[in-house]
Amino acid sequence: MPRLVLTVIGDDRSGLVRALADVVTEHGGNWEESQLAELAGKFAGIVVVSVPEDRAEEFATSLSTLDGLLEVSAHPGAEPAAEVQGAGAATDQLTIDLLGNDHPGIVREVSTVLSHHDLSIETMTTGTREAPMAGGLLFEAHVVVDVPAGSDTSALRADLERLAAELLVDIAVA
User: How big is the chain by its Cα radius of gyration, in Å?
Assistant: First the structure.
């Protein structure tokens, strides 16, 4: 069955997941995985579904029935076998945790270092929270990256340590 990657966004309210799940089920589809969250009053996320090939076009068209509730875009996804073959190139993963005073540019700087080392971000979660003692906002990030065989992780760690000093943040690599 073809896999589709759906991007969804709408004003946060109850019943949004049920409405999308109804459309998936009505077309013989299977909800495989998702990452969904409330962000700034919006409900947003990514959902991977598989739909019978003979119903995929009808399914994509029927997503418009959610207008007013959710804006949904469908994109072709990779087949599971292709993902498994591609995953063979990455032999390890690193976890990077960052915490420091919030200011513009942190994500750009960290992603620049990762890109320089040809590392692909598997997952990234970021957020801000009140600084309990000093006031202001703290920025925190949790990043998991795929590390291809032969990567120089000691050089990566050195670059991240240098970046932490420049940005005045704490970065832990595990």
Answer: 20
| Segments making up each domain of the chain, as ranges | 3-83, 88-173
pLDDT digits (tens, 9 = 90+) for 44-59: 999 999 999 999 999 9
With beta carbons less than 8 A apart as the criterion, state whether 169 and 101 touch: yes
31 burial (CB, 10 Å; 0-12 / 13-18 / 19+) is middle
pLDDT tens for each residue of 99-118: 999 999 999 999 999 999 99
Residue found by looking up tokens 């270092």 in the block? 113
Q: What letter represents residue 145's amino acid? A: V
In this structure, which topology does domain 3-83 adopt according to CATH? Alpha-Beta Plaits (3.30.70)
CB 170 within 8 A of CB 100: yes
In terms of pTM, does the model score above 0.90?
Answer: no
Architecture of the domain spanning 88-173: 2-Layer Sandwich (3.30)
How high is the pLDDT of residue 90? Answer: 47
